[in-house]
């Protein structure tokens, strides 16, 4: 059977993605590699062609069925282009049969942007890592070591691990919690064109880990706590008493269930903190956040969150509802779920490359477009990168985050694609400007 005659079901986490891709929430993530030399686009194209031989399931288009969306194989071939679009620009346009990922370059950077129906960050990085190795190998005549070549087959790479490990037990409990809880919402002004702004902050990974050890905690707990602190510093005293801050933290399920899939396979835990409990000391945030991580990162709880993602597909009534009605229902559910989340903190983790290639790489970074705000964390060698993407014109929360790092003694190097314009500082004038923006749209 030729590649063009194959189609695939969306995995369980991907089923809600097309229905929720709206405006700046393109559901596109970006993984970037900054090299220590300018990119050769011709060799990058050759490396991409070579890498796709091992990942044929990525060459697909998204199509509508009567009950579900599905992925249909295509003979279209991706072309490497110079980066000239806003960060995490849309990849899926209803009615168009376009590829769902792009590879771009700009000076020393190589970018992979991918629509979330294809993969999660970990799965996307599996492909990206091999692309970078193939590219650097061709530039510097370095053979890719057999020990780091993927051992999984093309079939294993496209497996739906949710379906493999799904059980019916308590499958909908987390979904109910997500839609019934109200969280504090960050109120800032959106870009007139709903385009995403990108801010990247780089610190010493070694210094950050030492800071976490000083507080007797982990890098993940410290990152989440500092983000909560940044949100608190943007709130009024009255707002601190109204709604809790709820930070969603994606969890790579491959750490709990053996799988070589490059498709979506993640769960989410929600870290809840009452801003009124903050007493001016970071420890008043760290301790409850650490306790929440410990309570939720158990295999039983992780299994429940995984089952929650699978509940929709395995629900008989939902399976029989036509797609246009599913779209409306999922969009409404997504609205309720968004109200239950303040922001998201996602950690891609420590990135390792074969020692033959590390001299040519400066750092990796990652970003994800969402409806509110998300920070993605990536570490390579001694560069720990915090990547923020949002359609907000102002960046009070992420700047508070980086100020908190400098207050704790860390040096931060900032980069941005920002192109915002000044907004009124008076609260009434700001609200008036926001109403005008909405009316204009």
Written account of the structure:
The chain has 2 domains: 3-143, Chloramphenicol acetyltransferase-like domain (Chloramphenicol Acetyltransferase, 2-Layer Sandwich); 173-356 and 365-440, Nonribosomal peptide synthetase, condensation domain (Chloramphenicol Acetyltransferase, 2-Layer Sandwich). The longest helix is centred in the N-terminal third of the chain and has 20 residues, at 121-140. Residues 420-427 and 436-441 have low confidence and may be disordered. It is α+β, with helices and mostly antiparallel strands and 441 residues long. The protein is built from 14 helices and 15 strands.
CATH topology of the largest domain: Chloramphenicol Acetyltransferase
Q: Determine the N-to-C terminus distance.
A: 47 Å
Contiguous runs where pLDDT drops below 50 for at least 5 residues: 420-427, 436-441
Residue-averaged pLDDT? 84
Largest sheet: 7 strands, mixed
Task: Note the main attributes of this structure.
441 residues; globular; 15 strands; 2 domains; Chloramphenicol Acetyltransferase; 14 helices; disordered C terminus; 7-stranded mixed β-sheet; 5-stranded mixed β-sheet; alpha+beta
